[in-house]
From TrEMBL:
Record-given protein name: Fe2OG dioxygenase domain-containing protein
Superkingdom of the organism of origin: Eukaryota
Pfam families for this protein: 2OG-FeII_Oxy (PF03171), DIOX_N (PF14226)
Species annotation: Apatococcus fuscideae
Region Disordered, annotated ranges: 125-146, 208-247
Gene3D superfamilies recorded: B-lactam Antibiotic, Isopenicillin N Synthase, Chain (2.60.120.330)
Keyword Oxidoreductase found: yes
Lineage: Eukaryota, Viridiplantae, Chlorophyta, core chlorophytes, Trebouxiophyceae
Length: 383
């Protein structure tokens, strides 16, 4: 893999997210040089920052501009209407979850997130035979679409289809930048027809003030399982205290700051957020040299970040960046629809031999993507 001799030692400095024009990946007859240039920029951004903006995508503004207003209107429906699509094991973990139902896990405990959401996944017939030695996935099934607001339902379906194409297009660029065949992340690995996808429609109300009560305690059924992430600001670590919840067997961590969504890395290949969504999204810089990162949301740039599976495939070259959501505006709630472009459910993800050497041996064991996802989504169901 030419050009990556010192790749693992990169300490490129950054103070803002790279903005990458991907026009050469979407136009009909681009030159190979133009595509290679975009690929190189994507890989450098993934390696050094883990987040980047994408312009030149060719997606019409109408596809994404009105959708957040429609999502906002859906969340304003009465609770009993929203609960018509309540999430649970019987709905294959798809549907609506109220405030505080989603948790972020840490070593030693969990914290409830201050948001409500609709969780959607690629629809898979639950009677599809499972591969040898595997049980059928409890996530396989149909979505509970927000049909209570037909205009939103329609817009959402169109938006998710478009995001699937955008995800596949960007992954083609990343493959080129890694010196792989353009379609490396297609077929059994991912691709428009074969990629798995996850989407969340999320509403973050203003955060409660210090001392106000936490989200209503109801069973947590979905998690941003983040294993051992440290809080992004050291002051919070000092303020953290542990409360025992003997009935649940796991500890609920309460700390002075209630987060809209706790710090985590994303699970798959590539996360895509609508233009303008980063106002309250904070990411932890990857390198010690970058101790602040300016986010500059724009009307036309989608904001992307990479996930755990790209780290495994690239043997740690392209690592996801830990991030969290903190709605700091006391007067306004925030709505967001992150789309997660994932590997194929059955993809076996393992370090590429080209990125392993005697100096840098394989850092990760092979993992089936579906197992990784289930480990995250189902992990705290017993809470
Ligand atoms: O709300 C957002 O924009 C992003 C939320 C997020 O990080 C996630 O759902 O993984
Ligand atoms: Fe995330």
């Amino acid at each position: 893999m030419p050009g990556f001799a010192n790749a693992f030692d990169s300490d490129r400095n950054f103070t803002s997210l790279p903005i990458i024009d991907i026009k050469a990946l979407v136009e009909r007859a681009p030159t190979p040089e133009a595509k290679a240039q975009v690929g190189a920029e994507l890989v450098a951004a993934c390696r050094d920052v883990g987040f980047f903006y994408v312009t030149g995508h060719g997606i019409a503004e109408e596809t994404y501009q009105g959708i957040l207003q429609l999502a906002r209107a859906w969340f304003q429906l009465p609770e009993d209407v929203k609960k018509q699509i309540d999430i649970g094991p019987q709905t294959h973990f798809r549907g609506y979850q109220g405030l505080g139902a989603n948790v972020t896990r840490y070593d030693g405990g969990f914290q409830r997130d201050w948001h409500e959401a609709i969780d959607l996944y690629k629809e898979v017939d639950p009677s599809t035979p499972a591969p040898a030695g595997k049980r059928q996935s409890p996530i396989h099934g149909s979505n509970q679409w927000p049909s209570q607001l037909p205009a939103f339902d329609r817009a959402l379906r169109g938006y998710l289809d478009t995001m699937l194409y955008l995800g596949s297009t960007i992954m083609r660029g990343i493959a080129i930048g890694l010196g792989l065949a353009e379609d490396f992340f297609e077929g059994e690995r991912a691709g428009v027809d074969t990629a798995y996808w996850v989407a969340r429609v999320i509403h973050y109300p203003p955060l409660p003030k210090n001392g106000q009560s936490s989200p209503a305690a109801r069973p947590a059924i979905s998690s941003k399982a983040a294993h051992s992430h440290q809080p992004l600001e050291s002051g919070e670590a000092d303020a953290a205290s542990i409360e025992q919840q003997p009935s649940e067997g796991l500890t609920e961590i309460s700390r002075s700051v209630q987060l809209s969504c706790g710090e985590h890395s994303d699970y798959g290949l590539l996360t895509i957020g609508q233009p303008g969504r980063t106002a309250y999204l904070r990411c932890k810089p990857k390198t010690a040299r970058a101790n602040g990162c300016q986010l500059t949301p724009s009307r036309a740039a989608f904001v992307c970040n990479i996930g755990d599976m790209l780290k495994v495939w690239t043997n740690g070259l392209l690592q996801p960046t830990v991030h969290r959501v903190l709605n700091t505006d006391p007067s306004r709630s925030r709505v967001s629809i992150p789309f997660f472009y994932e590997p194929a459910y059955e993809a076996i993800v393992e370090p590429l031999p080209q990125l392993c050497s005697a100096q840098h041996p394989a850092q990760h064991a092979a993992i089936r993507y579906g197992d990784h996802l289930e480990g995250k989504v189902l992990n705290n169901f017993e809470l």
